[in-house]
Every structure is written in C-alpha cells, then in structure tokens.
Amino acid sequence: MKIKTLLFDLDGTLIDTNPLIIESFIYTIKKHTGQIYSEEEVLPFIGPPLIDSMTKIDAEQAEAMMATYIDHNLAIHEAYVKPYPTVVETIKTLHERGYKLAIVTTKMTDTARLGLKIAGLEQYFDVVIGLNEVEHAKPHPEPIFKALEELNKTPVDALMVGDNYHDIEAGQNAGTKTAGVAWAIKGRETLAALRPDYMLEELADLLTILEVD
Question: Could you report the per-residue pLDDT of 121-177, keeping only the tens digit for each?
Fold first, then answer.
C-alpha cells in the first residue's frame, strides 16, 4: 500500500538542535553537580524523555535539573535551531501534495512548536504529539497511535521517520513503515542495526521513495 501519512521525530531529524541539547545538558549538569561533561558523555542522554536522562545523572536532583535545563534551553533556542538541508522544501512539497504530516516527539508540545516556528515549518504540521500528551513515550507505540488518530489515519499507510532507536522501534511497534536518517548524531550504523525500511541520506529522498514529482 502506498504511503500517505508521514510521522516525524523533530530534534535531530527535521531540525538540528543537537548543539542546543548538548550545551543545555552540559550547563545543567555543571550547575547542579559541579561536573563538566564532554559532548561524548552527553550523547547517551539525547533522545529519551528528559526526566529519564536526568534521573540517570542524579536521581535526587532530577526534577530540579529538568527545570534548569528547560529554562536554559528555551532562553538560547533561537540562536541554535536550524532545519537540516532539504527539510523545508521537502516538507512544503509533501504538504502541497496532500500528504498527512505529524510530529511525534519526546519533548513538550509547546517547545516542539517553538522549534517548528523558528525553522519555518510550523504551518505544515496541524498535529504535534509531545511528551505531555501521552502516558508512554516512544518506543511505546502510544504517541504514534495518538498522532494517527488525530489525522484519522491508520498505521497501514504510514511512515515513521527518526534519528534515534526509539523512533524506529516505536514505528515498528505501531506497525508503520520506518525510515532512519543518515545524519543521526549517534551514527547511521546505530539505526541500520534496527533494520528500518528506508535509510535517508537527506530528507528529499522521501520524494523519490514516495514517487512525488
């Protein structure tokens, strides 16, 4: 069956927020623990829900660290956020061709919408499912099911696109097709090991896969 619905992770998939996320983690960890983490040490914390990552760093201070992270992240958001190459034109084309589009992210919905606005993508996504709208985060299929419900679509003709293991596993758990992105900060090999249906070298590859002219 032809793909008609496209679900996207946001950070690291459509918009390059990796420097923003890394800087926010380093700042927060230093402020609360006095420890100075390297970029490499921060990488494992990127992707899962923020509270989960903060709990792994310091369970007793996790809530306070999350609040610090969010405040700092929002304060410097605009200086860091930018779309990856071919993203804006590809999303615009898909929207114009009538594909159903949604964001499925582990960040809060309002913060996700801010990132979309800064990147010039806000008008193409009526549905944004953030962590605050579900009980179970990716890789649980609930966020995908919720996005599909709001789009009035089913997993049968849907594709989940993401840069992290929980994106691919969420799609597989929900019964959608899946696509990894080769620009993932953890490396394309990490995603390839999960056997997604497609691997994108750039987002414009979707136009070829979908046979969009």
Answer: 999 998 999 999 999 999 999 999 999 999 999 999 999 999 999 999 999 999 999
Q: Which of 9, 11, 163, 167 is catalytic?
A: 9
Cα–Cα distance between 117 and 67 in angstroms, integer? Answer: 22
Residue 131 is encoded by which pair of tokens? 């962590």
- Rounded distance, CA 127 to CA 148, Å? 9
| Residue 159: HSE in the Cβ half-sphere, 13 Å Cα cutoff | 23
105: part of which helix (H) or strand (E)?
Answer: none
Q: What is the dihedral of CA 138, 40, 189, 130, to 10 degrees?
A: 20
pTM, entire model: 0.88
How far is the CA of 117 from the CAs of 73, 78, 134, 175, 202, in angstroms? 16, 10, 22, 30, 21
- Using left for φ > 0, alpha for ψ between -120 and 50, and beta otherwise, residue 139 falls in alpha
- Check if 58 is active-site: no
Strand order in the sheet with 158-162: 127-129, 100-104, 5-8, 158-162, 177-181, 198-200
Taking the mean position of all CA atoms in its chain, how far away is CA 91?
A: 15
